[in-house]
Amino acid sequence: MHALARAATVVAAGLIAGTAAQAQIKIAHVYGKTGPFEAYAAQSHNGLMMGLEYATDGTMEVNGEKIEVIEKDTQLKPDIGKALLAEAYGDDEVTLAVGPVSSGVALAMLPVAEEYEKILIVEPAVADSITGENWNRYIFRTGRNSSQDAVANAIAIGAEGVAIATLAQDYAFGRDGVAAFKEALEGTGATLAHEEYVPTDTTDFTAAAERIFQAMDGVEAESKKLFIIWAGGGNPMGKINAMDPSRFGVEIATGGNILAALKAYRDLPGMEGATYYYHAIPQNPVNDWLVKEHMARFDGPPDFFTAGGMAAGIAVVEALKKAGSTDTDDLIAAMEGMEWETPKGKMMFRAEDHQALQSMYHFRTKVEDGVDYGIPELVRELTIEDLPIPVRN
């Protein structure tokens, strides 16, 4: 072969090899980096990246291709989230997307996944309707839904002779949460005596609390509880507790939350509820790695949404491995019924609605010297088998 021809062949081979080496699987993280849920978003992204790292043994590579994560900020606005997801699928040509933080944003994004026929892994938005009435086959959720919160908390605090009032934010997360909780209480012997909804940005709970107290004052029950379903700031629990609900025989109850929010739990020793995650509760190798690495990298333990983000990252890698391709239909087939290990132990995508079934944790608040928040001490793990989560689509 002529020397120039040989040289051209070598160059062409090098270009082909270079192209192959640069092959990438693009994933979009579409989430509310700025706004009231900024803390949730930061945890979710850290967890996602750690999950991808853990599942790829640090290579950030799967099936011989590098993983590239593209970040997009919804600013917690549904119209922006919808546009950014379309941009990710259409212009960036991502294989799949993960996010968002807010249920309202998630509901706006669901039809985009269907339009582009691309997978959206919802993490950590909670509203039941995401994998319920608004669901489509391209939606999977690693985060827990309102029903999982509701059923777990109903098991934790519902009992014969207990009357419960609820306080929740007036949007999908709060409304779906209360509806699911009300349904979950059936069969526990407890009754839902009053529902109260307030705007998401409420900071003064005086009027709402007085309505709750007056409603509960006329209820005959052995035990009265106010169950609070809340996301973000405002500190309704602390502010209502400062109003001395015990005057009306009312005890505050709520589910788990991020570490910053647990500071308000310190004033409520012995309070019971159910939580999605607390770093000291799960005992498994994935959580051991997460806690150790998070302490080293961020000088503190992983939080609520860090664990959720990691579960999503591991799910992405396991799905790509199982499918052996980036084709959407292959990924859906691989993910339906897929089981994988997370910081919470085993999760499983239910085939009917692609909701991740998972453990929850019945806790009792404990106060310790030197700890500036109420510690959710495990009462018992509520496993997948313990939680009858309805299919709502």
Automatic annotation (TrEMBL):
Q: What Gene3D superfamilies does the record tag this protein with? A: 3.40.50.2300
Source organism superkingdom: Bacteria
Looking at the keywords, is NADP present?
no
The UniProt keyword set, sorted, is: Amino-acid transport, Signal, Transport
Q: Which InterPro entries match?
A: BCAA_transport, Leu-bd, Peripla_BP_I
Keyword Signal (UniProt) = yes
Which GO biological process entries does UniProt record here?
amino acid transport
Domain Leucine-binding protein as annotated: residue spans: 24-366
Signal peptide positions are: 1-23
One Pfam family per UniProt: Peripla_BP_6
In which family does this protein belong, per the annotation? Belongs to the leucine-binding protein family.
Kindly provide the name given to this protein in its UniProt entry.
Answer: Amino acid/amide ABC transporter substrate-binding protein, HAAT family
Provenance organism: Albimonas donghaensis
Its ancestry begins with: Bacteria, Pseudomonadati, Pseudomonadota, Alphaproteobacteria, Rhodobacterales
